[in-house]
Amino acid sequence: MMTPGLTQGSQHRWLLTLLTLIVVLLSLAPSLRLLAEALSDLTQGSDAPLWRVMQSAGTWRALWHSLYTSGLGMLIALTLGSLFAFVITLTDIRGKAWLVFCFMLPMMIPPQVTALSWLQLFGPASPLLKSIGMAPPLGSSQPLYSAEGIALLLGIQSAPLVFLALRTSLLSLPRELVEAARISGARQSQVWGHIVLPVTRSGLIAGAAMAFISSLGNFGIPAMLGIPAGYYVLPTLIYQRMASFGTGVLAEMAALSLLIGVLALAGVALQQHWMGRSRFGLTGHSGRAHDFSLGRYQAGVTALLVLVLLVILVAPLLALVVSSLVPAMGVPLSADTVTLGAYQEVIGRQGATWRAVSNSLWLAGGAALVLMLCSLPLAYRLQRLPPRLQNLTLSIIELPYALPGVVLAIACILLFVRPLPLINVALYGTLGLIFIAYLARFLVVCLKPVTASLAQLDPSLEEAAQLAGAGPWRRLSTIVLPLIAPALFAGGLLVFLLAVNELTVSALLWSAGNETLGVLIFNLDEGGESVLASAVSVLVVLMVASLMLSLSLLSPRLPKGVVPWQG
Amino acid sequence: MAGLNIQDVTKRFGDHLAVDGLSLAIEPGEFVALLGPSGCGKTTMLRMLAGFEQVSAGEIHLGDTLLASAHQHLPPEQRNMAMVFQSYALWPHMSVADNVGYPLKLRGVRGADYQRRVGQALALVALEPYAERTPQDLSGGQRQRVALARCLVTDPAVVLLDEPLANLDRHLRAAMEHSFADFHRRTEATMVYVTHDQSEAMALADRIAVMREGRLVQWATPETLYRAPRTPWVASFIGQGSQLMVAAGRPGQRLQEAELMRGLAAAERTQPVLVRPEHIHVQTAPTHHDVTARVERQTFRGERFELHLRLPGGEALLAYHPHALEEGQQVALILREGWCLEPDQ
Fold first, then answer.
1. Given a cut of 70, is residue A6 above it in pLDDT?
2. pLDDT at A4 exceeding the cut of 50
3. Which residues belong to any copy of the ABC transporter domain (chain B) (predicted)?
4. E strand residue ranges, B242-329
5. Are strands B271-275 and B242-246 parallel, antiparallel or unpaired?
């Protein structure tokens, strides 16, 4: 006979609670360690690392650069994102699904690939411009190596965030509110100005805040465009100091990270506040496009959107493909020069390239698998917590993802720079550290679809199984798991998609022999091997697009909002 | 005041015929209900009147103005109509007064005139103290009254109402039915009211268009619909009653007691007839030449009992009786009158 405290039900609950506690601690540990390091030795007065960093002119210059590029990028994102969101969600434009997919693609393409493809598009050595005879003379400068170049790419990369926030807001706008205005005598343009814009304004602001935070934490773009020009933003400043001075400057880097972390979290708070404001508690038939008739403007508006996509997506990718097919930078592409040599080099030779690809595949696949295994029991336990505790736990789990990647990387170095106590294993400088960082960073990406799916599940399904005699583990495996399997799988795919291209965290954590795919592209480009970098990037874009397509195929079986590019 | 003329209007969604050749001539100032089960096309018809949907074929006229045909479509904002939505559709970023005044603003009404007319409209629905609140602060019934005030502020030619009571509880419904009737009497606007609730339609409308699967089944006053429904389907949709087969009369004929009782006793019975429960007289002591029935079940309704009877031929019959009877008891029936139906299409 079992004692009441050890029945199957309570054993189940205790195990899950233990798991939750471990996960919460692991999510909090890096941030706490960073905080402790940054605030340490404050008693030393002006000699404390935090004060030293605060007094350095370089810090303030990089902070200004960060704010300038992110701010300008946010404005560009706002313009592009709201144009697409309003036109695609509100009007009867044709080919919506394709427009959305193409517009969302830049968000999923890793920043270093975006930067590389734009670099291949402009500048005197651009194989594309050379091939069509429009290249500027040799010696002229690359226009993208500038603050505005960085801002432009940050804007393009984060425009989908504005698009998504605004689209969600627009889709939850009940159709009746628009119809009531129409029948009150408002023309389409008046409806837009008087009703649609005011009601969805908070969604717009929330989207802008998200674009700003994301740009602030972006590493790949300012690294590839800024470092050659000596233009440093906060994340690249940390990277550069770490690359030059190693772990000796960790305390100062922790202080710098704290600065970005606080900025980013302030942005998150602002965004949450405005998202909350956007919930009017609207009733009516929402979730439907509003079908403003474009009428005779249909062709013009379609042409405008296609043109924007051609400029921000097709042209740079075309430049990337062209660059990957020439024998060397600066050679124009023609029937005589076209070669697949770069691809043979990437795929055929068992060198650093192949090692990086396999490292990334193992890391991303492993992280996706482990996180999928954790997410189900974790989400299951979270759902049974009181709402406030549940929100708090979710916020803690989200912390490593909300913080800029550089901050997490510095925090992980701080945590693991010394060998682990008791078992005496050193993680610093191994793939293991990158793996742990990925687990912390992407847990929330996998967890969110699962919690959303669980929340939709009717509790009576499980209660019926319980009455039929199924114990907790059996219910979890035979009732809950099959029903939320699509969401779990989607979460895993999203983690894989993000992790396989990750650059920011791995840029600080990699060591010789432990390169990742993101680092590889970055290093190849830095070493002047643009053709090889382009070939790797083309393969990466193909992989991203096919992963996105497979997620799209899965989307009919998923709760709303799991697949970001499908309303 | 202008009448609304719907001629052979058809609406197709892909292969699906939502409205199929509907024709109605609505008099100026008339209160009309479009009644039918969900999916019968009544809401689609209303949305075509408003201009939110285009007609696939047919024409809609308001007075001499062509509102819609297959080739022409006057946008909603130019139709001088107003609409009350099931979800109220109050704009959450505007105060109650701004919501009501919005149609005036669009018509260029400003200043003192604007204030006066918004005040009047709010007074009509007794919501003046709430003018500066936001719609979120109001109860369901209050929101519905704001929507109503917004409708009447511009003196529209036609007011459309899309199941306006569906989201309210039963108690509020009765109160709101009064406000609608009151509203109609004061404004004398032409009103088109969509509902699936027959008692609502009967209580409010001057005339009712009963719709089924996109077609008009009957277009008549509530009293005619109750007393002389055209088909068995309408008869079962409106009011209570039983349908029997008799060997007498022809469609559209009212049978009196003698004829009805004879027709019921005959062998070859092919004519469906509707017998309302108030036309059945129940006697507790049957003699051998009466029509008899067995009491299967009875339901207490306060002022009377509803008897569910079974005739010897197996047909069910509903009747009223002031007292409780024994279940299984035999009773004698006199059917005072019946209405001959034409078969369903």
1. no
2. no
3. 4-238
4. 242-246, 254-256, 271-275, 280-283, 291-300, 305-310, 316-321
5. antiparallel
| Total structural domains within chain A | 1
- Please tell me the CATH code under which domain B240-340 is placed: 2.40.50.140
What interface predicted TM-score (ipTM) does this complex get? 0.79
Of B80, B81, B93, nearest to A198 by CB-CB distance is B93
- Rounded Cα gap, residues A552 and A535, in angstroms: 26
Question: Which residues 89-128 of B have a C-beta within 8 angstroms of A?
Answer: 89-93, 102-103, 106-107
Give the mutation candidate from A184, A197, A291 for the B interface (greatest B CB count, under 10 A).
Answer: A184
Is B180 buried (19+), middle (13-18) or exposed (0-12) by CB count in 10 A?
Answer: buried
- We report the CATH number of the domain holding residue A260 as 1.10.3720.10
DSSP reduced 3-state for B190: strand
In which domain, by residue range, is A73 found?
Answer: 12-32+49-557
Q: Among residues of chain A, what percentage have pLDDT more than 90? A: 20
β-pair type (B81-84, B65-68) = unpaired
Residues from chain A that touch B76, judged by Cβ atoms under 8 A, are: 179, 182-183
B87: contact with A, CB 8 A cutoff: yes
pLDDT of residue A277: 67
Tokens 């894989």 belong to which residue?
A496
Are A561 and A494 within 8 A, CB to CB? no
What is chain A's length?
Answer: 567
Q: What is residue A127's predicted lDDT score, i.e. its pLDDT?
A: 79
- Rg of chain A over Cα atoms, rounded to whole angstroms, equals 25
Of all residues in chain B, the one with the smallest CA distance to A283 is B87
Partner B contacted by A539 (CB < 8 A): no
The closest CB to that of B76, out of A183, A199, A282, belongs to A183
Residue of B nearest to A293 (CA): B75
Indicate whether A488 belongs to any domain. Answer: yes
Interface of B with A in 134-173 (CB under 8 A): 136, 147, 150, 154, 160, 167
Whether B253 shows a pLDDT value over 60: the answer reads yes
Pick B4-229's CATH classification: 1.10.1040.50, 3.40.50.300, 2.60.40.420, 3.40.50.620. 3.40.50.300
- Helix H or strand E encompassing A369: helix A352-383
Query: Min CA distance, A209 vs chain B (Å)?
Result: 22
Q: Between B105 and A285, whose confidence is greater?
A: B105
Each residue of A488-517: pLDDT tens digit? 888 898 899 889 888 888 888 888 778 888
A-B C-beta contacts closer than 8 Å: 78
Is the pLDDT at A340 greater than 90, yes or no? no
Rounded Cα distance between A105 and A375, Å, is 26
Q: Position of tokens 């079986």?
A: A557
Note the pLDDT of residue B35: 95
Where residue A76 falls among pLDDT bands split at 50, 70, 90?
Answer: very high
Cβ within 8 Å, pair B76-A177: no
B255-295: per-residue pLDDT in tens? 998 898 888 888 888 899 999 999 999 988 777 667 889 99
What pLDDT, on a 0 to 100 scale, did the predictor assign at position B288?
A: 67
Give the chain A residue whose CA is nearest to the CA of B81. Answer: A183
Does any CB of chain B come closer than 8 Å to the CB of residue A282?
A: yes
* Tokens (6 digits) for A123: 């500048």
Q: Where are the domains of chain B?
A: 4-229, 240-340
Q: Give A-chain residues touching B79 at CB under 8 angstroms.
A: 183
CA distance B89 to chain A (A): 5
pTM of the complete model: 0.81
Preferred mutation among B46, B49, B52 to probe A, highest tally of A CBs within 10 A: B52
